[in-house]
Write a structure and sequence with these properties.
This protein is α/β, with parallel strands linked by helices. The protein has helices spanning about 5-10, 30-35, 40-45, 80-90, 110-115, 175-190, 210, 230-240, 260-265, 295-310, 330, 340-355, 385-395, 400-410, 450-455, 460-470, 475-480, 520, and strands at about 10-15, 50, 55, 70, 95-100, 130, 150, 160, 195-200, 245-250, 270-275, 285, 290, 320, 360-365, 480-485, 490-500, 500-510, 515, 530-535, 550, 555-560. The chain contains 18 helices and 22 strands. The structure holds alpha-D-glucopyranose.
Length: about 550
């Protein structure tokens, strides 16, 4: 397979439709809202939209619980609206990648309703049913959303597996009929003309024997069981390989060793995976994200550099700070304590990520430097993960106090990313004329698209320039990677090389100025001949171009 593929050169923009643009006054964003904003996205310069689920769903997990894979959630519009969105996007040269949520369905999906109806229903085996053990669940498998991953169904007395919410029963990929139904559904969407899939928790589709055993024993995690690669290869042969599309698998268990199995240059499975290591650096080793453990730049550098180096020439990376499951990057890895630092650090983070090797993903609002939500109470929250964790850790086990839990919710909770897109300084940030389903971040009066689109010094304009640079400079897409100053606790500096060109990326992750960096630390043979491609401060430091002084949250990208 040649090294030149459109999805390597592309920049992807993720839309969480519920929070993007409402055109009906319902307080919930929809498909027509996305269509209405296509020109904004075209102006930004992105190539691909990843649309979070828009399928029919009872919304226990905001659409990640699907009750009909071939119908649109009426809250978001109708299939005709989807068809129009696809056509309008394609007219502008923008591709659309759909979310594919097939580790589980909703418990309201007709497949599950049939499956649970009796022990001998033909669809019984499309889900994972087991007898209990000694009056309890089959084994100790736990759900990502807290508690046991087994739910007893009174009708037949058996338990079904749910790695997420109780309303998200896991599909049984070991059943060939189920696999065929999934592949047929995927083919139906691809024949409609969509441009690929982002595959939700795809690393959990194959369950290990211990998780399936009804023996009251210890279950291994369902994430990362090697059998999943057999299913992905089959999916690739039967479906994906027949289309010119882009595929990205969400794989929290992926390591630099396993990522090339999924996303190797042989193209046998998917084009790239979302790895998670860098999103865990500020989680407590025991309580996970519900006890904030602080941000350590050295860890971040080690992780991202390891992925850069290990995959180069072998497999393709995806690059992201943010998505609908993560807090806002500028609040997390940057600094939102003042308007000046917010803007500087949002740009610095953008350059740091977009100059690496891999396909960059921008999550809606990231291009504006949107920040975490100042939610104070559980009433402000909407996320099932937060509610379940609160019930489990505060009310149940009592390992966290209310205040500790709310602190973690504010720092790391998923609702931070789900507040409405901030379009302008008008009512509800221009998101909706109704009551938004989740609160608007009150900083929308200053942080909004209308204020940034025309401003050459805005975060939006900076993203636009980064995207443009990617199209002009092959070293950004294809260069190798070399970390410099690995032990510096404030600076993240790396170099990329490709066909005689060198890119030098300097990022200050601190609010301090860093002095005394010598050109010899950064360039192999002196700094002569380098050109500043982009930076977040006006002009270069006083000395003729030498990066001896790096200002708070400064980034500079040089090319030679
Ligand atoms: C993925 C999604 C997340 C969802 C979960 C269950 O991690 O990104 O939003 O809750 O899968 O579908």
């Amino acid at each position: 397979m040649s090294n030149k593929q459109w999805w390597k050169e592309a920049v992807v923009y993720q839309i969480y439709p519920r929070s993007f643009q409402d055109t009906s006054g319902s307080g919930i964003g929809g498909l027509n809202g996305v269509t209405q904003r296509l020109d904004y996205l075209k102006d930004l310069g992105i190539d691909v939209i990843w649309l979070s689920p828009v399928y029919k769903s009872p919304n226990v997990d905001n659409g990640y619980d699907i009750s009909d894979y071939q119908a649109i959630n009426p809250e978001f519009g109708a299939m005709a609206d989807f068809d129009r969105l696809l056509a309008e996007a394609h007219k502008r040269g923008i591709r659309i990648v759909m979310d594919l949520v097939v580790n589980h369905s909703s418990d309201q999906h007709p497949w599950f309703i049939e499956s649970r109806s009796s022990l001998d229903n033909p669809k019984r085996d499309w889900y994972i049913w087991r007898d209990g053990f000694a009056g309890g669940p089959p084994n100790d498998l736990t759900s990502v959303f807290s508690g046991s991953a087994w739910e007893k169904d009174e009708k037949t007395g058996q338990y079904y597996m749910h790695n997420f919410a109780v309303a998200q029963p896991d599909l049984n990929w070991a059943n060939p009929e189920l696999r065929k139904a999934v592949f047929d559904m995927m083919t139906w969407w691809l024949d409609k003309g969509i441009d690929g899939f982002r595959m939700d928790v795809i690393d959990a589709i194959a369950k290990p024997a211990s998780a399936l055993a009804a023996n009251g024993g210890k279950a291994e995690t369902c994430f990362g069981n090697p059998l999943l690669h057999e299913y992905l290869k089959e999916m690739n042969q039967k479906v994906l390989s027949r289309y010119d599309i882009m595929t990205v698998g969400e794989a929290s268990s992926a390591t630099v060793k396993t990522a090339p199995i999924y996303a190797g240059h042989d193209g046998a499975e998917v084009n790239m995976v979302f790895q998670f290591e860098h999103t865990w650096i500020d989680h407590d080793p025991k309580l996970g994200k519900w006890r904030y453990a602080g941000f350590d730049l050295l860890k971040l550098k080690e992780i991202l550099s390891r992925w850069q180096t290990a995959l180069h020439g072998k497999a393709w990376n995806s690059l992201y700070w943010d998505n609908h499951d993560q807090p806002r990057a500028v609040s997390r890895f940057g600094n939102d304590s003042t308007e000046e630092l917010r803007v500087l650090s949002a740009k610095m983070l953008a350059a740091c990520l977009h100059m690496m090797e891999g396909t960059p993903y921008i999550y809606q609002g990231e291009e504006l430097g949107m920040t975490n939500a100042p939610f104070k109470t559980l009433d402000d929250c909407r996320d099932v993960e937060i509610f379940n964790a609160y019930r489990d850790l505060v009310k149940g086990k009592g390992v966290l106090t209310h205040d500790e839990m709310m602190d973690a919710v504010q720092k790391l909770g998923r609702d931070n990313a789900r507040t409405p897109m901030q379009w302008d300084a008008g009512v509800n940030a221009g998101f909706s004329t109704g009551t938004p389903w989740i609160g608007v971040n009150p900083n929308y009066k200053t942080v909004n698209a209308a204020a940034q689109i025309q401003d050459p010094a805005s975060v939006f304009s900076f993203y636009k320039q980064l995207i443009k640079l990617r199209k002009e400079r092959p070293v950004i897409v294809h260069g190798d990677y070399e970390l410099l100053l690995p032990n510096d606790k404030r600076l993240f500096v790396y170099r990329r090389n490709f066909e005689g060109k060198t890119l030098l990326v300097i990022c200050n992750f601190s609010a301090e100025k860093v002095e005394g960096i010598k050109p010899a630390d950064l360039w192999k043979n002196g700094a002569a001949g380098r050109k500043l491609l982009i930076g977040n401060y006006a002009g270069e430091p006083a000395e003729p171009g030498e990066p001896s002084l790096i200002r708070p949250y400064e980034t500079r990208v040089y090319l030679r």
